[in-house]
Amino acid sequence: MAFQTPYEVLIGLRYTAARKPGGGNRFISFISLISMLGLALGVAALIVVLSVMNGFQKELRTRILGVASHAQIMGAHGDLANWPAAVENVTGHPRVVAAAPYVQQQALLSLAGQVRGALVRGILPAAEDRVADFARHMKVGSLERLQPGEFGIILGAELAFALRAFEGDKVALIAPQGMVTPAAVLPRMKQFTVVGIFEVGMFEFDSGLALVRMEDAQRLYQMGDTVSGVRLKLDDLFAAPRVVRELAMGLGADLRVSDWTRTHANFFRAVQIEKNMMFLILLLIVAVAAFNIVSTLVMTVQDKRADIAILRTLGAGPRSILAIFVIQGTLIGVIGLILGVAGGVALALNVETVVPFLERLFSVQFLAKDVYYISDLPSDLHWSDVRIIAGSSFALTVLATIYPSWRAARVNPAEALRYE
């Protein structure tokens, strides 16, 4: 037996595309078209904006973790004495890719009357290169130029600019720990030679971080063979919280383990809250477009009162009338939704091409390089976001059809045909 399409579907489809040369259906169809385009525009805007925000979040995370670490081990009281044993212990974990010891202390840097506070990080270049991404961000020099005993220093670009320091300049590094002499307590000071400059693109690091050789930092801060901690790189940065919990169970009580989600929790939480709020705000645009379907169906019901009455007299029940107009409104929404998802996905996947074209076309620059560190609009399309947007928009569309369809189902056939 051949499958027969329910007549409610056929009538709903006919009402959506119907035209009368001189009647009101032409205007109603125009309103339907506007509702479709409005919904498509709202859905496309929501997909593109969330993709761009995902791109910014990914770019910032990459830049932060290019300098910071996925996880780190520190001594419970500040210093880590037997760090080789700690490295050997954690590198046995299957998710740990590399480990690097470091010394981290505060200092004042001075050059030609310019003084700036900085965070000094003592590193082993070969090990640091495996857990961080400094090599990609070096503007001058390289990490390999940090040799033990030569007291070389690599400055962030903003820090170097503030000190007016260039390659080869001598920078005085003043440690907060003092030297006790018979006359007084004098600050510990050492001259370092600028051997490199890096620029990560995060002001916090570019303006306040200086790299030195780990042995030189240990000697300057009188730390002996101890370090401040060990930085870890994992094969999956999103697995950091779970890996840290597993490592903590295998380490002694005198060691403390943390991951990037804790050390930068406020920043990434703020970015996520901003993304959620943008989703809700833009969803209101989709809601406005979806509820335009209400006015479309209300006018359609008013225009089709005689048709509804005839269908009722032919035996169609209220549920069938309700289904006809739900199908019509849902079809309007689905067409707009399909157009919006297709356009939004296409634009989100080509933001890096479309935005430069618009900048050249209108001779503008949306993100000026002299103001913003990220001068290009990054995009990272998440299909989970597309599914959520499509599902939410479809739900709003169906919700918008309920009231006018319910009114259509309540039309009294005798009353509707009285003046026909």
Q: Give the SSE string.
A: HHEHEEHHEEHEEHEHEHEHHHHHHH
* Number of helical stretches of at least 4 residues: 16
| Residue-averaged pLDDT | 80
The helix-and-strand class reads alpha+beta
Q: State the separation between the terminal residues, measured CA to CA.
A: 40 Å
Radius of gyration: 33 Å
Fraction in beta strands? 15-25%
How many structural domains does the protein architecture include?
2
Biggest sheet strand line-up = 2-3-8-5-7-6
Tally of DSSP β-strands: 10
Give the low-pLDDT segments: 20-24
Oligomerization status of the protein chains: single chain
Shape: elongated
Largest sheet: 6 strands, mixed, barrel
Provide structural commentary.
By secondary structure, this protein is α+β, with helices and mostly antiparallel strands. It folds into 2 domains: 7-62 and 268-417, no CATH class; 70-260, no CATH class. It has 16 helices and 10 strands. It has helices at residues 7-17, 25-65, 83-90, 125-131, 134-137, 157-163, 203-206, 214-220, 240-250, 260-263, 265-303, 305-313, 318-349, 351-362, 383-409, 413-417; strands at 71-75, 96-111, 114-123, 138-140, 152-156, 170-180, 185-198, 209-213, 229-234, 255-259. A 6-stranded mixed barrel has the order 2-3-8-5-7-6, surrounded by 4 helices. β2 (96-111) and β3 form a beta hairpin. α1 crosses α13 and α11 (265-303) packs parallel to α15 (383-409). The two termini are 40 Å apart. The model is unreliable at 20-24 (pLDDT under 50).
Topology record:
Elements: H1 7-17, H2 25-65, E1 71-75, H3 83-90, E2 96-111, E3 114-123, H4 125-131, H5 134-137, E4 138-140, E5 152-156, H6 157-163, E6 170-180, E7 185-198, H7 203-206, E8 209-213, H8 214-220, E9 229-234, H9 240-250, E10 255-259, H10 260-263, H11 265-303, H12 305-313, H13 318-349, H14 351-362, H15 383-409, H16 413-417
Parallel strand pairs: 3-8, 5-7
Antiparallel strand pairs: 1-9, 1-10, 2-3, 2-6, 2-9, 4-7, 5-8, 6-7
